[in-house]
Amino acid sequence: MGADLFERRAVISGVGQSAIGRQVDRSGFQLTLDAVLAAIADAGLTVDDIDGLAMFPGGGKANLPGYANGNLYEVQDALRITTRWRQGVVEGMCMPFHGPAMAVATGQARHAVIWRTVKEGSAARNAGGRPAYGSTNPMAEGPLAWLLPVGALSPVCQVAPYAARYMHEYGATREQLAWIPVTQRAHAALNPDAVYRTPLSVDDYLSARMISTPICLYDCDVPADGATAIVVSAAETAPDLRAPVAIEAMAGVVDGRPSWEQWEDMGRVGYATAAALWERTDLRPADVDVAQLYDGFTIECVWWLEAMGFCKPGEAGAFVEGGSRIALGGELPLNTWGGQLSGGRLHAAFGHVAEAVRQVRGEAGARQVPGARVAAVTNVGGYEAGAALLTTWSG
Amino acid sequence: MAANVGIPPAVTDESAAYWAAAAEGRLLVEHCGACGAESFPPYGICRSCRGRATAPVEVTGRGVVYSLTVNHQRWMPGLEVPYALVLVEFPDHPGVRVFGRLRGCEPEEAAIGMAVDVGFEPGPGGCAIPSFVAVAASPDHGPGSGPAVPGAV
Ligand SMILES: [Zn+2]
Predict the structure, then answer these.
(1) Contact in structure between A68 and A100 (CB atoms under 8 Å)
(2) ipTM of this predicted complex?
(3) Distance separating alpha carbons of residues A173 and A313, to the nearest angstrom
(4) Helix (H) or strand (E) holding B108
(5) How far apart are CA A297 and CA A221, in angstroms?
(6) Which stretches are transmembrane (chain A) (predicted)?
């Protein structure tokens, strides 16, 4: 199956990251250059090989202080390259490498870089706390007009009703779901680049302050400073690349109402995207060796565990309880870099993709899943959702 | 009542009628003249039959909480916490769900499935925001109370 899928004509050739931390004393522009140059080197390419540039989100879109992508043309100018394809998107990202993969699969570029740079850790420090979503604008526009005026001032408040509804329908408990952040923290201890690496216990989780019920502090990802870049190359260039990774399949379906508060069925999210993904591959959930599931909040991991078929609907609480299934050595090691909950909110699955690439290459160091060949990676959830399978390159 | 802290809405051609009615304590959604379905937020098109002949209609009936959260975080200076936010659906208005605050009970008493009446209270920038009223605590439904007056601002 799938020889004619566009994503099979593309590979992920490089991933690179800047220094990552709660605060990194370096401008967003420098972090971007650090990550882009690292990713190009990781691919085994030179800067002059790059002929496509993209960033997420596109220019001018900043609902939170600390969105630090910069300007695409300034990055191109600084790199002194010629591009044949450029993109900055807000809607329709699916996975970070979706647009670049389309570009190289259709011959518009041969090697395209996409980056995401955040200085949200510094922005939160400067604001004296995590700022309100949309507070970069004086008025709440578009869908935010139904959220910010009433006091749903953060993605926490917008996602929390999903968690409340999920727990109401299925009886999942905070004691069960705690094992997602707790297990991911244990993984972060093995990742020198993770923001938080000290052990976290279920008791710590249960005694943490509520942000917006039932979401507590440790259910929220960590505002961070850092940049991630991903190089996507045409598959026919594989002989020139250091360690390409295959894109087995990807999908991003927006079904339900594309709105945080209007999404009809808040107990179930991501199912259409996951179904479309599995239609594009002969692989099955049981073939996945390691999962990097988007975790802006704990509940987003829950959605993806169920939607992707790693467990049945409503059973994620039991699946993660005790942590053994989702820990290194378990049947589905989850967010082996710590995820955004402990590794840092690198946003939009850029950190998840970087880790998936390292895992299927066998380059994940102390947190390597032995023999990992198939990684699942997902992005966001809710109305915008993306999912992909990355596999070890076999030529 | 002091206005709630928040970020005010940018009022559009599509939402102007909603915000104007909100200031009068009335909840407007969009009604389709062709098929009778109701839509929210207002887009000037029926989300059921895609008919363009829509007009505002007032929701007066009792609502039911679909889900909720109690916010404890002070996202903006001066924001008073905690407060409950509820997603309310209306048995008599299928297809309509409205996000708003909850009053008339302690935030911790908010629950999925609880009945609420429509109400509003002062919001940021001079607007009025939905502030649903827990039915058990609503004086409109106490013994000897008069007819329900949906939420004065
Ligand atoms: Zn209609």
Answers:
(1) no
(2) 0.95
(3) 15
(4) none
(5) 6
(6) none
Q: Would the CB atoms of B71 and A141 count as touching at under 8 Å?
A: no
Tell me the β-bridge partners of B54.
B32
Best residue in A212, A218, A259 to probe B by mutation, most B CBs within 10 Å? A212
Dist CA A389 CA A291 (whole Å): 9
Domain A6-119+224-240, CATH among 2.60.40.10, 1.20.1730.10, 3.40.47.10, 3.90.1150.10 = 3.40.47.10
Provide the mean pLDDT of chain A. Answer: 96
Mean pLDDT computed over B128-149: 63
Q: Where are the domains of chain A?
A: 6-119+224-240, 155-222+247-392
Give which of A349, A339, A348, A374 is closest to A359, Cα–Cα. A374
Q: Strands of A27-66 (E only): list them.
A: 52-55
Closest chain B C-alpha to A224 CA, distance in angstroms: 18
Instruction: Tell me the per-residue pLDDT of A181-200, one tens digit each, with 9 for 90 and over.
Output: 999 999 999 999 999 999 99
- Whether residues B67 and A262 touch (CB distance < 8 A) is answered with no
For residue A143, the one-letter residue type is P
Distance A159 CA to ligand 1 centre (A): 30
Q: What is the pLDDT of residues A15-45, one digit of tens each?
A: 999 999 999 999 999 999 999 999 999 999 9
Backbone angles phi, psi at A78, to 5 degrees: -65, -35
d(CA B143, CA A81) in angstroms, rounded, equals: 77
Sign of CA dihedral B34, B40, B44, B47: negative
The candidate with the shortest Cα–Cα distance to B62, out of B20, B33, B104, B24, is: B104
